[in-house]
Amino acid sequence: MNLAQILEKSMQDHDHLCPRQILGARIGMAGMKALNFTEPPKKKELLIISETDGCFVDGVIAATGCTVGHRTLRVEDYGKVAVTFVDTKTSRAIRIAPKLDIREQASAHIPNEPRHYFAQMQAYQSMPDEEMFTIAEVQLNKSVEEIVSCAGMRVNCDMCGEEIMNERELKRDGLNLCRACALPAYYQVPIVLTAFSESNL
Fold it and tell me: If pLDDT is split at 50, 70 and 90, which confidence band does 75 have?
């Protein structure tokens, strides 16, 4: 697919097109190119790790075909517009992020558009990759096998009893614990106090 087709696909989940979708699409295309994929691979040969969520990721998905549902997309939310592309056969990993001055470069690229948003809309579709991105080969701290894990593996948490899939349990003192029990969770269960009337005392 060319960029116009990718953007059309990205817009299917939105009512409009925005600079971050375009940026995501361009980064998706650049990542596949860096790993020598000429089209979105079909057999889970590409794993992408996005460092943010939102419409940016929709652009990346449209370009790569990677999704959470197919377990080929992971979000490690660092709040950064950046993606690491991993060839699952070779474990080669390429991280791509916008250059720090990309917004200024976009305005310079479209000098007749004083509105930054619209300058970015246009520039991100036509600027060369080398003016837009930093592209670096990186080494993963976990193997591809550990990141992807084995689908269908299940164990129950020894503390809360809930099921843990895909080898995401943590071992603590011989126990299998879910991350919510082993680490500070993103939620907490409120403590419900039983009300006693005076007759109960």
Answer: very high
Handedness of CA 59, 42, 76, 87 (dihedral sign): negative
- Pair 135, 40 in one domain: yes
Name the pTM for this structure: 0.86
Same domain membership, residue 167 and residue 68: no
Q: What is the CATH number of the domain that holds 175?
A: 3.30.60
**Which among 32, 33, 26, 36 is positioned nearest to 64, based on CA atoms?**
32
Among 99, 128, 100, 124, CA closest to 113: 124
3-state SS track over 26-92: HHHHHHHHHCCCCCCCCCCCEEEEECCCCHHHHHHHHHHCCCCCCCCEEECCCCCCCEEEEECCCCC
Predicted pLDDT of residue 194: 62
